[in-house]
Design a protein that fits this description.
- The structure holds 2 protein chains of 2 kinds.
- Chain A contains 23 helices and no strands.
- Chain A is globular, with a radius of gyration of 26 Å.
- By secondary structure, chain A is mostly helical.
- Chain B is of the alpha/beta class.
- Chain B has a domain of 143 residues: Rossmann fold (3-Layer(aba) Sandwich), CATH 3.40.50.
- Chain B is built from 11 helices and 10 strands.
- In chain B, helix 3 runs parallel beside helix 6.
- Classes of the chains: A mainly alpha, B alpha/beta.
- Chains A and B meet through helix 1, helix 2, helix 3, helix 6 and helix 12 of A and helix 2 and helix 3 of B.
């Protein structure tokens, strides 16, 4: 299959109907824009148009920040800023979408037995991904494209030059993302691919947050203002390669001043594209085959799975006395760590929540000599957001039809199912995130003071984690991912959680300075238990009709 | 014509399919039987190019699936047991996509799709407007069967094709298979439903532990083995004995 000689390949190419790639591109555009589990064709088309317009509008607004820098910064700094923002946002979008599009499990069943060459399949996907990324990139660069034409010493040539360089940047970005995923599959195998995809996306999300904070600092540093194209720090930054190309094409930098980054940009783009779209594309069917091989390669082991061992921990057994709660905990834990779809949504989502406060602390440390009080409050309060997003996401799954089992079961209420999932999120995500954060803060601050504000906030976290089910019934994995927007929590809930945490952290800091921290923590424990009981009673008081809203089979 | 020679697939040192050889001439419906995990689906996946065999060959109308996969796949129609379809497409969009992949233009594909619609008693409006994610299991199965037969393949592989079909559709589909066989198509029908296989198939191959245990006409197999029925022969071959005792024990324990 992937081992044709060149003569065979030429013969096959001649025999392939010419419209196959076009049909595939059309297919992947539809899947990308509608989502794999869209609901109704007409409604989704409308929803998509609105969604895409809104996304493009938000990207255009984001482009305002680098766009206006055209009038203050040097052309190379302006172009680097634009390309940097584009690369960050495009990378995040690509990282989020590419893994699912490249390695969709059901694809092998639908397409691998059809007369389609693996290269065609990969090229069609790459074209769609690149097209979508370019669309977002153009929206992000829209203001910059205009302002650049009017900011001396740039002129009208900026427009075609920057369009060309942005297109090249997107080709580079798509090629690199596909190449990374192909190599991951080759090196780590199918079993570890999901974890690698999750880790890659989480890292990219963190890099985006870091980049967003560090880019303005870099602009202020003067490194770009006194541009030296042989500076190794600058040569390590892909946005600078394409910015140098911009400046050379527009004529603000001579070839002698820009050849090294320009050649690096063009050369790397060609190399990465060849590797991703030609060299590794030939083995793409093998990759899809291995994804579709399912559990047939699973290693047999007499040892119980880690989760069953964990479930025997005495403290955990005491915490999960209700059997329904306990099994909902197992269900949520299983999906958090085993289901690719869930992992790819949750971990890249919470990674920036943890990374941002750390970064704020690092930046503030330069000026204030460490994590200042306010930064500490913000950092700790931010962690209360960690359980909210996963609990919203755990409600939605491609396997939503299976939740009919829960609806059919003679359960008087959904609350134990929610509590099980909530406890899983608290135990596996929220508390470890808090420990990580506090550990870093203690290391930076050089004292145990951050612990004083973190403990009361951690005590409050189980209450915050009840908020996703405060307004509507919550069954695990029971809703289609297409309905996610309708069930988003809204800013008010996030604001309540963070606001309450900031207040608690502030009071804790104040009382700690007066020596009343231990009574305060004890009071917070009592308050947290009372609030949990009160909110749970509220949930139980609401009648539950276990029916599925949609008519989907 | 379908020919398998020494087809083997090994997963992590375990032979899922071991040295399987079969020849299925045109006009034959071969029933592929075996207990769960016997290697039926793995065999079909290797034949249609979804899995690379560890060794051996599979040729479709004389074309080796490994050396000329595109030509072989054009001669082949496959209905996977999962019945996977792109849920975000309408039925019509999905079938037109499949037609395009086989080089059938829309003008040619539409009348063919209409024929299948009429055969399966599907409404055109639903096919045009409703996304596949909202189809019932049976309707999705009908679309998957249409997608497998749309390009008029010479060899048809069916993995549990009746799963989800209502009784009327199932009766119609069985008759369709007989017609296709009369027209010279080679059909491989993998299923767990023994009586359907017995009635529809000209030949039955039973796979046990990845190996071919028997291969002959159903009547001949029963006659030679001395069993009362194909079902009895199947339980003998697959080592599933003492069913009556197990059922009695189970009922006794479950319903004391």
């Amino acid at each position: 299959m992937a081992h044709d000689t060149s003569a065979d390949a030429a013969r096959l190419a001649a025999a392939t109907p010419p419209n196959v790639e076009r049909a595939l591109r059309q297919l992947f555009w539809r899947l990308l824009l509608r989502g794999r589990t869209a609901t109704n064709a007409q409604a989704d088309r409308r929803k998509f148009k609105m969604g895409l317009k809104l996304t493009l509008f938000i990207y255009a607004l984001l482009g305002l920040i680098p766009g206006v820098s055209a009038f203050g910064a040097s052309p190379i700094a302006f172009a680097s800023f634009l390309h940097g923002m584009t690369l960050m946002f495009a990378s995040l979008t690509l990282a989020a979408g590419v893994g699912n599009m490249l390695f969709a499990r059901e694809e092998a069943e639908i397409l691998l037995h059809r007369p389609v060459r693996p290269e065609q399949l990969l090229r069609a996907k790459a074209a769609v991904i690149a097209g979508y990324a370019l669309l977002l990139a153009l929206a992000l660069n829209f203001i910059g494209l205009i302002t650049g034409c009017f900011a001396a010493p740039l002129d009208w040539r900026w427009l075609p030059a920057h369009l060309l360089s942005t297109t090249l940047l997107m080709v580079f970005s798509v090629g690199l993302t596909i190449l990374i995923y192909s190599l991951c599959l080759r090196w780590f195998g199918r079993e570890k691919l999901d974890n690698v995809l999750t880790m890659t996306q989480a890292l990219l999300a963190v890099v985006m947050v870091l980049g967003g904070q560090l880019a303005p600092q870099m602009l202020r540093s003067g490194l770009l203002e006194q541009f030296d194209h042989t500076n190794p720090w600058l040569l390590a930054l892909p946005p600078v390669w394409f910015a140098a190309l911009d400046c050379w094409l527009v004529g603000v930098l001579s070839w002698q001043e820009s050849w090294l980054p320009t050649i690096l940009g063009l050369g790397t783009t060609v190399l990465v594209s060849w590797l991703a779209f030609v060299r590794f594309a030939r083995g793409y069917d093998a990759a899809l085959q291995s994804i579709g091989e399912g559990g047939e390669t699973a290693k047999e082991s007499n040892r119980p799975r880690r989760l069953s061992r964990v479930m025997r921990w005495p403290l955990l057994r005491a915490w999960l006395r209700d059997p329904v709660e306990r099994h909902a905990f197992v269900l949520a834990t299983g999906y958090l760590f085993r289901d690719r779809e869930t992992k790819l949504k949750i971990f890249p989502g919470i990674a920036p929540i943890v990374a941002l406060p750390i970064l704020l602390g690092v930046i503030s440390m330069k000026g204030a000599g460490g994590f200042g009080d306010f930064t500490q409050f913000i950092a700790v309060a931010y962690i209360t957001l960690v359980p909210l997003q996963p609990l919203t996401l755990l409600r939605h799954s491609e396997h939503f039809r299976t939740a009919d089992l829960l609806r059919a079961a003679p359960l008087p209420h959904w609350a134990p199912l929610f509590h099980g999932a909530r406890k899983a999120v608290l135990l596996w995500l929220a508390f470890p995130a808090m420990v990580l954060m506090v550990g870093i803060m203690i290391a930076f601050a050089g004292s145990l003071r951050p612990l004083a504000i973190a403990v009361p906030v951690a005590v409050l976290m189980p209450v915050c984690a009840l908020l996703p089910a405060i307004r509507q019934p919550w069954l695990p994995l029971s809703e289609s991912p297409a309905d996610m927007q309708a069930h988003s929590l809204g800013c008010a809930i996030f604001a309540i959680a963070v606001g309450a945490a900031i207040v608690v952290a502030g009071i804790a800091a104040w009382l700690a300075s007066l020596g009343y921290l231990v009574p305060f923590i004890a009071g917070m424990v009592v308050l947290s238990l009372l609030l949990q009981r009160w909110l749970t009673r509220g949930m139980l008081a609401r009648e539950w009709t276990p029916t599925r809203k949609a008519t989907r089979s | 014509m379908l020919s398998l020679q020494g087809l083997t697939k090994t997963f992590g040192g375990h032979d899922a399919v071991a040295d399987l050889s079969l020849d299925v001439p045109p006009g034959t419906i071969l029933g592929l039987l075996g207990p769960n995990g016997a290697g039926k689906t793995t065999t079909l996946r290797m034949v249609c190019g979804m899995l690379a065999p560890t060794s051996g060959t599979a040729t479709i109308c004389g074309i080796d699936i490994r050396t000329d996969p595109l030509a072989a796949k054009r001669k082949l129609g496959f209905v996977p047991d999962s019945g996977s379809v792109y849920e975000a497409l309408t039925g019509l969009e999905f079938l037109l996509l499949i037609a395009a992949l086989y080089g059938i233009d829309e003008a040619t594909a539409r009348p063919r799709i209409t024929q299948f619609l009429e055969f399966f008693e599907l409404h055109e409006k639903i096919l045009e407007n409703k996304l596949l994610g909202y189809y019932s299991k049976g309707m999705r199965r009908k679309i998957a069967i249409t997608a497998a037969l749309l390009h008029n393949p010479s060899v048809v592989l069916l993995d549990e094709p009746l799963d989800g079909l209502d009784a009327n559709a199932a009766v119609g589909f069985k008759k369709l298979l007989e017609t296709l066989a009369r027209e010279g198509k080679t059909i491989v029908y993998s299923s767990h439903v023994l009586d359907v296989v017995e009635r529809v198939c000209h030949r039955v191959a039973i796979i046990v532990g990845g190996k071919l245990a028997v291969d002959d006409a159903p009547d001949e197999l029963v006659r030679r083995s001395g069993a009362d029925s194909l079902e009895q022969l199947f339980t003998q071959l697959t080592g599933s004995t003492g069913v009556d005792d197990r059922v009695a024990d189970f009922a006794k324990n479950l319903l004391p």
